[in-house]
Amino acid sequence: MGFDGDVWHVRSGDAAVGEILIDEADFPWLSGRFTPGPGFASVRDLFARELALADADDEGHRERWEAAQDEIHRRVSLISPDGPVPEFLLHIEGDRAWFRWNAEPFRQTDDDRS
Fold first, then answer.
1. Residues 50-98: pLDDT tens digits?
2. Phi, psi at residue 32, to the nearest 5°?
3. Which residues contact residue 56 at a Cβ distance below 8 angstroms, ignoring those fewer than 6 apart?
4. Which of 19-23, 26-30, 56-60 has the lowest mean pLDDT?
5. Using N-to-C axis directions, what is the helix angle for 44-55 and 61-75, rounded to 10°?
6. CA 87/CA 13 separation, integer angstroms
7. How far apart are CA 64 and CA 56, in angstroms?
8. Which of 19, 30, 48, 92 is deepest in the core (most CB within 10 A)?
9. Phi and psi at residue 104, in whole multiples of 5°?
């Protein structure tokens, strides 16, 4: 499966948050050079907070990280060369972005629906 050279897009509604030019594929992660778009300023702090929480090791950091991920999902979409992907875990730091994705939505369990 070749991803090298593919361009993935990050959007927030109609605003272009940025593009990711894939230069490394280490299943299940893809990574590449991130070029910010005009919409990046509105989510820059969110991605910085998400990474800080991912690296944290204090009580409650996991819940705060999950809340940051939920906010990312509410505010941005990830679009592959074949179209939008429903599930993803995306990190952006400087001129690098790395992510994993799934072409199908994750199934909800009965616990998730309560």
1. 999 988 888 888 899 999 999 999 999 999 999 999 999 999 999 999 9
2. -175, -175
3. 64, 65
4. 56-60
5. 150
6. 16
7. 10
8. 92
9. -120, 145
In the numeric block, which tokens belong to residue 95?
Answer: 């001129």
- Asked if residue 101 lies in contact with residue 37, where contact means CB atoms within 8 angstroms, the answer is no
Q: Alpha-carbon distance 12 to 79, whole Å?
A: 11
- Name the token pair of 47: 């991605």
- Tokens 């939008």 appear where? 84
90: β partners:
99
pTM for the whole structure:
0.87
Let me know: does 96 contact 84? Beta carbons within 8 Å: no
Using alpha carbons, select from 39, 17, 15, 19 the residue that is nearest to residue 80: 19
The confidence band for 113, taking pLDDT boundaries of 50, 70 and 90, is: very low
